[in-house]
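ingest -> validate -> predict -> emit
validate: passed (alphabet ok, no gaps, 375 aa)
predict: started
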Amino acid sequence: MTDSRGFCPRCGDPVPERRELEDGAVDPLRPGAEVELCDGCYFDDFEFIDAPDRIDVRVCAQCGAVHRGRRWVDVGADDYTDIAIEEVSDALAVHVDVDDVTWQVEPEEVGLNTVRMHCYFTGVVRDTPVEEQVMIPVKIARQTCTRCGRIAGDYYASIVQIRAQGRTPTTEELDRAKVISERIVADMEATGDRNAFITETTETDDGLNMRVSTNKIGKKIANKMVEEFGGTVTDAETLVTEDEDGNGVYRVTFAVRLPPYVPGDVIDLEDDDDGPVMVTSARGNLKGIRLRTGERYEASYEDGNDPPARKLGDREDALEATVVTVEDDHSIQVLDPETYQAKTIARPEYADPEADTVPVLKSRAGLHILPEADA
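emit:
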């Protein structure tokens, strides 16, 4: 390290002509100067902390979001003191020459809308310990963010209608649809999308209506319904207004049509002599189990999830029938659960030959053993 002597250009005291750091870099205070200031003159102009005289913060009184720049930001703060600490942290600047900086803050609440932030700093510059204290008042202005204002005004841009073909959606389907929709919105909120919300959910005599904040959310919910339950979705646009540039603003209605059958339904297919089928899935092509044999069934591509059939009942209609005897690999004798007469019926491969009772469905197609719920 070189240490040739020079004189302070301000006061004339002798100082090193040029201070080089260990890596060969010049002192960052005056990198272009032939000589540097002495410590006395240096510290006369030294400002450890650059802090604003006051900080004004706009906070949404409903959700706690903070307005920064041109947008509202969710900060996840528990109270206004946490917000004040974060805002002060972002607003403070420490001199670049200071090493080993430590600081702490003591908030002082003054009324409902003001927090005084007492900040204490220590550090080292030119091998000299330095410290400073500043007090910054933070003024809190309670307002309503754009999102909360829209929610309060029942704003929506899209409608999702959930119906079912030839039937009314089940309570389980509607409850599941609500859970899925709320999860989609929560996931979008978690990624920072503050425009994601459900304005209203209404159950009707034939299904469910949901008003949501954006067309993007409406489409996402509708597609997820089809992915979960099967069925189809169509959309229709309605011109609502025009924006400031004269472009049309459209509200989109997404109509979700659930399949006519749900898992657990027992149907009798038209033009089919292989006996009833219990539905196991309605996603894409209808799938199920043959009740006579236990073989798997899948509808053709053309029939999709709506093959020509009539519904015979569902799993909830099952009754317990006493097993009399297993006659062979394909037949079993049970007591009719209503008449208690012994009847020989088809024995599907899933029927347990050691069971004392079996669940059966009695319908116009006869008596059939149903698979267990986890089959």
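The chain is about 15% helix and 40% strand.
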